[in-house]
Structure formats: structure tokens, C-alpha cells
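quick one, 313 residues, struct below
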Amino acid sequence: MVYSPAAADAVSPGGRDLVEARKIVLQLLSGLPSSSNGDIYKAVLDAHGLTSESAREPLKVDTPHGRQVEDVDPSHPAVWSRRLRFATDHVLHELYTNGVISPASGDSYRASGDSIPVRGNSWNGSVQYEHHHTPPPPYGRWKMAGVPSLRAELAREDLPERYLELLGVRGSQVLREGIGAFQRGLFIAAVDLLGAASEAAWFGLGAHLTDDVKLQRLVAAGDNAAEVIDRSAEGVARRSAWNKRGLKDLRSQAAHLRDLRNYGLHPTGATDDDLEPAFTEAGCAVLYMAAPRYFRQLDQIRRGLQDEEPEEA
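---
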């Protein structure tokens, strides 16, 4: 059997896949007494315009029969649907082990396949992959755990101190107060403060990109967070200090948190149906569950850039 590393990479969930799956799972379970794995998978697929039939749509390739397939399009429905399923499995496992959800009686879990249907120039078949994704816990139905458990597990109180060098003193205080707001059920404040902490992290990152003079002026002035984020991301890419896909996820998450902060700080004006759900308990929980990984990766980039800085004479 010939396995395709390209297929395994294409079905591996990225940061954005996990964030979106968490959001959908928590919103679904917040509005229902319980939900089956099948319903949860369907909700995730529906949110991306996919169905269970998407997994059966052949991926067109130019590879001769019997050869390793390398041209795997990650946006193809058969590939995308599998990546979303693996992302959902990972999220269910994470939510369960953190005490956010608990099992409910219901259907048994059915394992996913390990191939993608393909159609060559003169053949039909499948491309095999060997992807070691996080399996879901062995339960077939889920419900939300108690609210105190949810907030205590998701709002990590050690984050501000752990990433003090990245966030700075004020940024750490902002994140600490955001965590406290979430634990007390003050969701608008919690989202706004998380967005502010995100901006502080990018200022902390940008301070190490000394080859960009304008960026250093912005960092010193504490001004124009949007441009600081953009120029910092460009500087990281320029130095190849993080992989392209991961950096794209971080930049997207930063932009989303900034949009939420701007929206949350302006209580008048038209309601944005895309942003409003983030200010509910489930939506806020999604953001705080993603925060540890987000700040950890930004701090890993910061430490890498710091190691590259020349020592002072």
C-alpha cells in the first residue's frame, strides 16, 4: 500500500480549523440538552457548505495509477470534510478532558476512513493516507458540563504570568482582568480585554523586529495596533521565523480579536450577526480556549527572534 504524505498533511487540522470547530460545538451544545456525534459533525460540515456526501466526491489527480499522489488540494470537498472531522474529534477530546462537556447516553461512535476517492486520467480509485489524528473520547453523545467547571477550566489564570515578557506589565494585567471578567460572566468585558491583550502581544513581538524602523516608532508610541500587527507578521515572514500556514492562522486570529474588540467597545450602531455570538458564554469560551495556544505560539516566535538579536558589546 502506497501512503501519501501530501494527503496526510492536507487532512491535518490547522489552528483555524480547531477554533471554528470549538465555536460550533460549544454553540450547538449550549442550545440543546445534548447532541450526538453525528449531529455535531453535520453542524461543522454545514457551517462550511459541506455535507456527508462531500467525502465521496473524487479528487482529480494526474498521477499514474499505483504511484504516490502528491497533488492534493486541501480545499477539495473530500479532503476538507475529512480535515473538519479530525478537527472536531480533536475538539471533542479537548473539551471532554478539560471538563467542559460530559457524556450523554446515545449512539456509538463510528470511526472515520483512511482514504480519499480520486479520479485519474484513465482510472478511478483512492489515495491512502496515514494520519494520526486525535481520536474523540469513546462516547456517542454530549452535553455541556456545569457552568463553573466551564469557566474555571477555560480561563487559565497562569497565562498572564507565563507570558509576561511577551505581554508586558500592562498587557499581563489586561489579560488577568479579562480572565476574571470571564469567570464572573462579564462576557463583553472579557472579549474586549482579550482583544487588548492580543494587541499587547503583537507590540511585544514587534519590539524584536528592529530592522523595521517604522514598526519600532509605532511600538515606542504604542500607536496603530492594526499596522503593528501587519508589519510584525510581515517581519516574521521575512525572517522565516514561523511556518507560513501557522503565521496565517495567527494573523487571522489577531485580526478577529481586534474586530471583536472594536465592535464590543462601540455599543451603538448596527448589530453584526457574525460578531455578536462571540459575546455569549459559548462564544467567549471559544476565544478563551484558543488563547493558551495563541499566546504560546506568539511567545515562541518572540523567543526565536530574541535569540537572533546580536549581543550588546
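The two ends are 58 Å apart (CA to CA).
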